[in-house]
Amino acid sequence: MRDRDLSHDVLKKLYAEAIAHRGFSVVDTLQVCVTFRNLYEFYNERVYEVEGHDPRDEAQALAKIRAWDYRSDGPVALGTLSVRERPVFGEQFAEYGRREIDLDAGLAAAFAELT
User: Fold this and answer.
1) What is the distance, to the nearest Å, from the Cα of residue 82 to the centroid of all Cα atoms in its chain?
2) pTM listed for this prediction
3) What is the C-alpha R_g of the chain?
4) Beta bridge partners of 33
5) What CA dihedral angle connects 65, 54, 24 and 102, to 10 degrees?
6) How far apart are CA 76 and CA 85, in angstroms?
7) pLDDT band at residue 59 under the 50/70/90 scheme
8) What are 34-57's pLDDT values in tens digits?
9) What is the band of 6 on the pLDDT scale with cuts at 50, 70, 90?
10) Interatomic CA distance for residues 12 and 29, integer angstroms
11) Among 54, 50, 32, residue whose Cα is nearest residue 41
């Protein structure tokens, strides 16, 4: 989710979505510091609200997210860019209580991911 500090209605909606989302949420709020570098004009020329975008489509979401970063001059998409539904910690933790844990297999899988 990404928004800027001037669009209060959209920003409120994004924060509400982030709070209501089960699990981890990131809200990237673009806020201008007029003392250091006034970027209002820069943002006004580049930002747009995402419409007709499926945030569950990972490839489409990544394309929107990567179209702009803090060093580029590309268009800046605002809105819910990506949503992933995954089990939350409590659900996974409860599952561990119902079975025996094989530490050796868990460590081997963790190290396999690192190499």
Assistant:
1) 6
2) 0.62
3) 19
4) 37
5) -110
6) 25
7) very high
8) 788 777 888 888 888 888 889 999
9) low
10) 11
11) 32
For residue 12, what is the DSSP state?
H
Output 31-37 pairs: Cβ under 8 A, ≥24 positions apart: 31/4, 31/5, 32/4, 32/5
Q: How far apart are CA 46 and CA 41, in angstroms?
A: 9
Burial of 68 (0-12, 13-18, 19+ CB in 10 A): middle
The region, left, alpha or beta by phi > 0 then psi within -120 to 50, assigned to residue 43 is: alpha
Output the average pLDDT for the chain: 81
CB 44 within 8 A of CB 23: no
- Boundaries of every domain in the chain: 2-86
